[in-house]
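## retry 2 of 3
previous attempt timed out at serialization; input unchanged, resubmitting
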Amino acid sequence: MELLGIHHITAFTKDIQQCYDFYHHILGMRLVKQTVDHQNPAVPHLYFGDRTGQPGTVLSFVEGTFNDGNDAIYAYCLRVPTDRSLYAYKLRFDDFNVKHDAVIQLNGRHALPFYDCDDRLVYLISDETNTGVQAGTPDDESPVASIHQIYGVGPVLLTVRHSLITASVLHQILQLERTGEYMHRASQEPVQVFSMATGGNGGEIHLLQQHTEQAVQTGIHHAAFRVRDLESARQLLDKAEIQHSGIVDSHYFKSLYFRDLSGVLFELGTDEPGLTVDEEIDTLGQSLSLPDHLENRRQALTDQLKPIRKDAL
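## retry succeeded, writing output
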């Protein structure tokens, strides 16, 4: 199985308007798609990313409630160009009263922990000393200067009670290489680093064994990885007798979902056709996008969904 890097992260948000305000107006990410949850079209689904919404830069949010669980994706990182970018965002966070901690190191790279509109732990991580999977393209219309903008997603941080199980899936099934280890700042437990493709921030999974029985509540639904050949991936999962969703057409890419025995939900997705399949780059995210099978319900869904107010904070 050949993975090309992180594809996207999907999480729940308790309030879609607050989510838009935070991720666009404060973090400066571009809204690249307004759509709905295809399984429940009454629920809004927003995608944020770089200027073009390319895989590897995208966060998506579905309005809903968080799920408790011990085995989880406990945090994700957002890539910024330099160490100086972290301090530019720190000043921005102070201006907008965003809770944040001091700059730390994650796997030898500087990172700024903060808490988003859902009080979820997120890290800004510097690409200054990073190599590997390339980042995206800045957006000229962002409220954040292009030299500091978020332009990629990753690494993804996992915490599970049975790390050997998840490590086995990452290495033997997904064929990631174990490329490093560092100490988790709070718990002083070792964090294993697994890399896909050319590695770096856009191609790393960090795995921490959770020793506490206390449930965590992150609201992160799944992590998706870019795959070159989805059919080959399906066959590999079948051979390993790992249950999966089968190939699903989500309109913007094809993918399949599976869980490891610790309960972490992973998605393998194609790059094509991409978020520009139904919108031009210059107009991404400006109107409601629907897959073909929901077009006949456009008016009803438009009336039902809460409109996103896009005026500045």
